[in-house]
Design a protein that fits this description.
The chain is an alpha+beta fold. The chain has helices at about 35-40, 55, 160-165, 210-220, 230-255, 255-275, 280-305, 320-330, 350-365, and strands at about 20-25, 45-50, 65-70, 80, 90, 95, 100, 105-110, 140-145, 150, 165-170, 180-185, 335-340, 345. Among the domains are: about 1-100; about 200-315, no CATH class. The strands form six sheets. Strands 2-3-1-6 form a four-stranded antiparallel β-sheet.
Length: about 375
Amino acid sequence: MRLLKWSMDFDIHAESPICLVWLSLPNLRIHFFDIKILQAIGSLFGRPLQVDQATTNKTRPSVARILVEIDITKEYPKEIWLGSDSCGYSQKVEFDKFPIFCSDCKLHGHDINSCFVLNPELKGNSKNYSPKSNPINSYYTWSNNRLWQRLDRILFNQFWIDKWPLTSVEHLSRSLSYHCPLLISIKKEIRINSIPTFRFQNMWILHNNFSNIVEANWNACLAPDNSVRGMVRLWMKLKRLKHYLNWWNKNHFKNIFANIKEMEKEVCRLEILTVSDSSFLNDLNIDKDNLVKFQDMEETYWKQKSASKHISEGDRNTKYFHALVNKKKSINFIDKIRDENGNWISDTLLHESVIDYFSNIFCNEVHVKQLDYSFLI
């Protein structure tokens, strides 16, 4: 028995195209994570029913999800404009897979391409038929050779993501059961020993002596020839400044997290001394100001690492930015690749395959056509 939504034009022989679908708003700005605002966004597409728990608690800042009752036979925009005309932005909208629905016979479970009414020649091959656009082993987890649905899912919380950010789920092939097995793979973060590259840290700007250090290094004479001009001079100055900032970061600025722990211990020590001797009050206030500066640097570090373009109102957002970093890490992680023969490669063979691929490219002879530069001045 199935329950169908009643309407004025209800037909007992036709199934309703009104379905519940999860609407996702990837990279939604954090100040839009409000129930009323999310319901207003959902009402643009249908009737909003609820938002998921992660969106309500703001524990998954990478995406907001709304359960909406919509008509799956209609077309919906892929982007919407949020905010005012001058300060708004274009927000991407994604829907979960719509249930398969035939607009001709008004039934769920197949589309017009697999409809026996429109395509009677498929009726004899129904046991072996599976729609090309909806392969069972990729997206759907359940099938009785007539209906294809995604019924089985893996659920985990934010603590799991923080502990194992490189978790992946794979749908295996079905055998005796209508359900396909779900394989959970927990990957360890692979650290490759490579030459460290220079990256400017925005938190350096918050240091009191940073401007003076950069100015002194930039105005110093170039060795061994200070007479160079133009782009060569600019390149030499940038190269020298890069090496100096790397040295300064390692020997003077040091590790920001270790600085915070050391300063917190010092503040606690001075608070104990101030109780019995008020002469330590001035030193305590100075260290508290320094602790606040270090915390500002830490927040700036995580904001830059997460590549976030917005910031939440309220207290410090290091936990929020750390969650974005873990999400970004899991998205950028390459679990497996397909070789030239169409075979999937993973684990240790993946690295060897990448090395072989680029070695073949750079080892091949490249014929460069000689260009005529006579027309250049």
